[in-house]
Write a structure and sequence with these properties.
heterodimer, A: alpha+beta, TIM Barrel, Immunoglobulin-like, 2 domains, disordered N terminus, B: about 525 residues, alpha+beta, Cation-dependent Mannose-6-phosphate Receptor, Chain A, carbohydrate binding (chain A), glycoprotein (chain A)
Chain lengths: ~750, ~525
């Protein structure tokens, strides 16, 4: 091999793409592997694409492509590469589940052949298998790298999903505010504008936890600086927000403006922190600031330097309540091939004996899909360091790779105000969720174009039930803060956002549990109902944990939608969360939807904690009381969980938290601590217990907590079999029990 | 924290809540968060009925930190109901209604601190201070309005005068228009009459011209026929009516490059792909190619001379374009043109020649008719223009009279006045009741940010906002527009220009015209009553 390579002429493998040239100094390094999944009905994963959640046979077209790209106005129902690349693929059938992680950061293509697709199966295969067509094949092809494959085997999807996060990491517990509502725009133009938007939320009694600043806040796109004309008092601006429990999130992109006198550029030039071109000189590309270079986050020295930029004194105006948005980290290079970096650029490689010449560096082609991951991990380090490890950072990233979940939340990039993009947000986020990234959402309202009232309403309603909930918009579009719509629309948006806040502690608990078990927060139905074959291709509804089923309305002008209720065999009951009306699971049913209705169901057998007192921001609700919604299964039982801590520090690591199990059976409802060594001095209490689906109501109820017994008042609503316990006033800081007598 | 400690905390909390059901801050006892006007709806001696009538609950359930009424009316003083309203008296300053969600949330919303009663130390009472500030501000505004009002009254007087003048001007213009219209009609009649005579006289010339032209055309045609057939015969050596390749090959004149032989290329030049040419084909295809060569052969064709001829022709044609009715007399410009040669004999100066050419063509009588008709035309055009000008003035004045210059015409004299405002990048210009523009300091085109549209203040305060609409369209967006907030000031000027929404500009504009102290006092009073 080495011999034949020497015989090749230099540049023999080089290629041209449009006006770009790729020198390919190492020649052909491509690798490929075929993997068969017997007994699989479908395969899933390999995000990020806009196609369905279940993957399709590709023989009649292009394979699924994994190559992180800043695609302008990306297409729907497509296998084209967009911002993220996670090379993990799962198979599932009634017999078993499996998964393959193709550990490779180079450009990768995946072909899929599903034998159930009659059109692509040769008669020979039919002959050999005797007509049995339950099988899917996949072929991974990468431009470079070694074959480094992990295989996961399990009885059911959760087994393999868990193995993947065991390998690549689960998302750590995010700060609680980050699960609340975010308000963004390119751009809030100056301090008075930020103030007005902040006040607007209060004036219209709509909660919001973070205001975002896009690139225009900087001094001419120089990150870690402020435009002093428009933002002369950043610290004061941040203080105004934090006084109401809100945060500021500012953007920091990986491209660095090449401008004399800009400290980052000067340091990076001097210390050699930039990615190099094929000749070893600092690579220059074009991005927002104009001529730019790119920090080489593969170099530990660069990460160290970069992380230090986040020190409060290095980035004046910031505080623990300023969090970070890492955009353009595919990386986006406006004048590069496919709007990214040339593949023959050079990255740092840890020196090793005997590796010199071209072996002394990585080419960009080898590590491309991992660039963004290195970027966010540097940001993460910097944000932890800036508070000496006290506060949890929140980061949003656009570029995605395996492991991204350990550092950042992800949004689905620059979508448009069209129904199709709202619809795509669900399969895109489920696909990311099973691939480790539960903290996912789409730009509510759509980034490009302007959403009219109905689309905006539906998007808020959908976004309220997706993990990352942020409205964002393009600089050239009409302003669209919730109160700029007609009063009725504003009221519906308020209702949608309040729905999110009421469930905030439920979301927070789900993310805590994810940090422990690594399972998706936003789940495909087949994860919980793996034997139900109809669920295998459902990707317009999903589960939150194993408790809520969400089918957002994502179609214009509809008055009813089809909702699939799984669990018929196990006699599952689903309760409409608005009416507590019980629906026994029986596959598809029609649900009437007016413009205010979002079909959400709570599974019988589950308990969901809510906070009905929705305030301006999550932090202000910390000590508010809970309403516990108990949805009974056919045995009149239910259970749930609740996680409580301070919402922002790492103190939970040293047992300053409450992780409680809540159980209900006809005789007694119990609130007990799963981890008895952990505690948290919450002032929250139980203001209401709602028991849905109660057939034989108890005559009396008594709270016992701390050795005291208090009789409780109850009201029975006969119309929908709901029993409400009025003000039990039990403290959530210690265990309690409610005993019922009949 | 250990269990007993938080328990104590909880008890204190509950205690606080209970003791605060009835607050005794003012003379009339009323539950916390209830305004004086609603106090009578909460009677401690009776059960409480939700405002929406949905249910009746024991009075002890009012402000017990649990929401019993759908409308939130049972919890005016707690955060228990999502849609409740909390009232703070704010003694010393203005009272306030805040959403229940802001009660006990750790943020001081009422200046009297009553919204954060769970943690009384957190929010000191600042009403006295704020009230004082607010009153001082109000006083300042009142003074400003008072001072400005004097100027405003002057503006009103001037405005009314201006309008009156405009009305007078308008009626004068209406009269002028009538007169001008009359003159225009007279001139039109005269013009028609004289043009008819002129036309009649010129017809004679036109007929003669046409005859001459036809004659000449016929002569030329015959001349051409003759020449073509002569030449055809000259080469058609066997007189069979066809020119063959062989016949052409012997004709010297076909030897374009004069190399002594007619080669394939030259044959192809004249004959195309044909083997032979009959008379008609010769005439249409070969003749135009052959003629110049023949002329050269005969020594008739000298390139230099030809150019001169062409030039002269052009000059003549240009000249004739400007003079209707006598055109094309000399357009051929050849040596045998009589008129041309006559002219060159009479006039040795060429320029002079062109100027005097026109009268030369007609007899005196005709020329006189032409002159008279031209004068009538000119006078009609003038009369017509006068009418148009008057009409345009009338329209302008009418438009101005229709414009809304405020209740008392206080803005009338500001119409057309232009004010500028500069920021870092742009110079903005507001021409009142006309338009708003923006110009980059780095040069470039002036961009229209809107033309005068209408007064767009809220009801009861219509004259507080001006709207300029339909400016230049934004890329991928709407047409630019500008809202101008009008406030009282002793000067007339712009105090800021911003673009709060993409392509929607906001101008802060102060002027004494807005200093109406009577409405100002009224508004202040209303505000205080709230």
């Amino acid at each position: 091999m080495a011999l034949s390579r020497q015989q090749e002429e230099e540049g023999a493998w080089s290629e041209n793409f449009k006006s770009h040239h790729d020198s390919k100094p190492r020649g052909n390094e491509a690798i490929s592997l075929d993997i068969a999944f017997p007994d699989a009905d479908h395969v899933y994963g390999i995000p990020e694409h806009t196609d369905n959640f279940y993957l399709k046979t590709t023989t009649s077209g292009e394979p699924y492509r994994l190559y992180n790209l800043d695609v302008f106005e990306y297409e729907l129902d497509s296998r084209m590469a967009i911002y993220g690349a996670i090379p993990v693929l799962y198979s599932h059938g009634p017999k078993r589940s499996a998964g393959v992680f193709w550990h490779n950061a180079a450009e990768t293509w995946v072909d899929v052949v599903n034998y159930a697709d009659g059109t692509v199966v040769s008669s020979l295969v039919n002959l050999v298998t005797g007509g049995h067509q339950r099988r899917v094949d996949a072929r991974f092809m990468s431009e470079a790298g070694v074959i480094d494959v992990f295989v996961f085997l399990g009885d059911k999807p959760a087994d393999v999903f868990r193995q993947y996060t065991a390998l690549t990491g689960a998302a750590p517990l995010p700060p609680r505010f980050s699960l609340a509502y975010h308000q963004s725009r390119w751009n809030y133009v100056d301090e008075p504008d930020v103030r007005a938007v902040d006040d607007g939320f209060d004036a219209h009694d709509i909660p919001a936890d973070a205001i975002w600043l896009d690139i225009e806040y900087t001094d001419r796109k120089k990150y870690f600086t402020w435009d002093m004309e428009k933002f002369p008092h950043p610290a004061e601006m941040v203080a105004n927000l934090t006084a109401k429990g809100r945060k500021l999130i500012v953007i920091i992109d990986p491209h660095i403006k090449r401008e004399a006198g800009y400290f980052v550029h000067e340091d990076a030039t001097e210390q050699g922190l930039y990615v190099k071109d094929k000749d070893g000189k600092d690579y220059e590309g074009w991005c927002w600031p104009g001529s730019s270079s790119y920090l080489d986050f593969f170099n530990p020295e660069v990460v160290k330097y970069y992380a230090e930029r986040f020190q409060f004194n290095n980035f004046p105006g910031t505080s623990k309540d300023v969090h970070i948005w890492n955009d353009m980290n595919e990386p986006s290079v406006f004048n590069g091939p496919e709007i990214t970096m040339p593949k023959d650029c050079r990255h740092y490689k840890a020196p090793q004996d005997g590796q010199d010449g071209i072996a002394a560096f990585w080419e960009h082609r080898h590590v491309h899909n991992e660039y963004g991951l290195r970027h966010i991990s540097g940001t993460h380090q910097g944000m932890i360091d800036r508070s000496n490890g006290k506060y949890r950072p929140f980061i949003l990233t656009r570029s995605v790779f395996a492991g991204t979940q350990r550092y950042a939340a992800v949004w689905t990039g620059d979508n448009a105000a069209e129904w199709g993009f709202l619809q795509a947000s669900v399969p895109m986020c489920i696909s990311l969720a099973v691939s480790g990234i539960s903290f996912c959402g789409s730009d509510v309202g759509g980034f490009f174009k302007y959403p009219e009232a109905e689309l905006m309403t539906r998007w808020y309603q959908a976004g309220a039930y997706q993990a990352f909930f942020r409205a964002h918009s393009h600089i050239e579009t009409k302003r669209r803060e919730p109160w700029l719509y007609d009063a009725a629309t504003t009221a519906r948006i308020r209702d949608a956002v309040r729905r999110r806040y009421a469930l905030l502690d439920f979301w927070y608990t789900l993310f805590y549990e994810h940090s422990i078990d690594g399972l998706p927060v936003m789940r495909p139905l087949f994860q919980e109902y793996p034997k139900e074959q109809e669920t295998y291709t459902i990707d317009n509804e999903y589960l939150l944990g194993d408790k809520l089923l969400v089918r957002p309305v994502m179609e214009a002008g509809v008055t009813s939608v089809k909702v699939y209720l799984p669990g018929k065999e196990s006699q599952t009951i689903w309760y409409d969360v608005d009416s507590y009306h019980a629906y026994p699971a029986n596959g598809y049913m029609n649900v009437d939807v007016n413009i205010a209705k979002v079909p959400v169901f709570q599974r019988g057998g589950s308990i969901v904690p809510r906070k009905e007192r929705v305030r301006r921001a999550a932090a202000l609700m910390a000590h508010d009381p809970y309403t516990l919604v108990v949805a009974l299964d056919p045995q009149a039982k239910a259970e749930g969980s609740l996680y409580i801590d301070d919402g922002e520090t790492y103190d939970y690591v040293s047992n300053k938290f409450i992780y409680a199990k809540i159980t209900y059976e006809p005789a007694v409802m119990k609130y007990t601590f799963v981890n008895e060594n952990a505690s948290y001095p919450t002032r929250s209490w139980v203001e209401r217990v709602v028991i849905a689906g109660i057939k034989t109501p108890p005559k009396s109820a008594k709270l016992s907590q701390g050795g005291k017994q208090i009789p409780l008042q109850m009201t029975l609503h006969r119309g929908n079999n709901v029993l409400v316990i009025r003000k039990p006033s039990a403290s959530m800081a210690s265990p309690w029990e409610i005993h019922f007598t009949y | 924290m250990i269990y007993s400690a938080w328990r104590k905390q909880l008890q204190t909390f509950v205690l606080v809540v209970l003791t605060c059901v009835i607050s005794a801050q003012t003379d009339v006892p009323r539950p916390r968060g209830v305004s004086l006007s609603k106090a009578s709806l909460y009677s401690p001696t009776k059960d409480f009925t939700c405002f929406d009538g949905s249910s009746t609950i024991p009075f002890s359930y009012v402000n017990d930190d649990y929401c019993d009424c759908f409308d939130g009316s049972d919890e005016p003083g707690t955060s228990a109901c999502l849609n409740g309203i909390f009232h703070c008296t704010n003694a010393g300053h203005r009272p306030q209604n805040i959403p229940s969600s802001q009660v006990n949330d750790g943020v001081c919303d009422c200046c009297d601190g009553t919204d954060e009663y769970a943690n009384p130390e957190a929010c000191p009472n600042t009403c006295e201070e704020l009230g004082k500030e607010a009153r001082a501000k109000a006083q300042h505004l009142a003074d400003l309005h008072k001072a400005g009002n004097f100027i405003r009254l002057e503006l009103i007087e001037k405005g009314n005068k201006k309008r009156q003048e405009m009305a007078e001007q308008l009626s004068q213009l209406e009269k002028d228009k009538e007169e001008a219209q009359k003159i225009k009609e007279e001139k039109e009649a005269l013009k028609s009459e004289l043009e008819a005579k002129e036309n009649e006289a010129l017809q004679v010339y036109r007929d003669a011209e046409e005859k001459e032209r036809l004659k000449k055309e016929e002569e030329e045609r015959q001349q051409l026929e003759k020449e073509v057939s002569e030449q055809f015969s000259r080469f058609d050596s066997n007189n069979d009516g066809l020119l063959t390749v062989d016949e052409i090959k012997v004709g010297n004149v076909f030897d374009k490059n004069k190399d002594g032989e007619v080669d394939e290329e030259e044959l192809k030049y004249f004959m195309g792909d044909k083997e032979s040419l009959n008379m008609e084909e010769f005439k249409s295809d070969a003749w135009p190619l052959l003629k110049p060569l023949l002329m050269m052969e005969q020594g008739m064709f000298k390139p230099a001379e030809a150019e001169e001829v062409a030039e002269e022709t052009e000059v003549d044609e240009e000249e004739t374009e400007d003079i209707p009715n006598i055109a094309e007399i000399d357009s051929t410009g050849t040596e045998d043109d009589n008129i041309d040669s006559d002219m060159s004999q009479d006039n040795d100066d060429e320029d002079h020649d062109i100027h005097t050419e026109t009268p030369k063509g007609y007899d005196d009588e005709t020329q006189k008719l032409i002159d008279e008709a031209s004068e009538a035309r000119r006078q009609f055009v003038d009369a017509e223009r006068t009418v148009r000008e008057i009409e345009s003035n009338i329209r302008n004045i009418q438009q101005n009279l229709e414009k809304d210059y405020g209740l008392n015409q206080e803005y009338a004299t500001l119409d057309g006045q232009c004010l500028e405002y500069e920021d870092k990048e742009y110079v903005y210009k507001l021409c009142l009741f006309q338009k708003v523009t923006q110009k980059s300091k780095n040069g470039g085109m002036e961009v229209g940010l809107g033309d005068w549209g209408e007064w767009a203040g809220e009801e009861g305060n219509k004259y507080s906002v001006m709207k300029y609409t339909n400016g230049v369209a934004c890329w991928n967006g709407p047409n630019r527009m500008t809202l101008v907030n009008v406030n009282c000031g002793l000067e007339t000027k712009l105090t800021s220009v911003t673009e709060p929404y993409r392509c929607e500009y906001k101008i802060e504009f102060i002027t004494p015209a807005a200093c109406d102290d009577s409405t100002f006092i009224q508004q202040q009073t209303e505000h205080d009553e709230l």
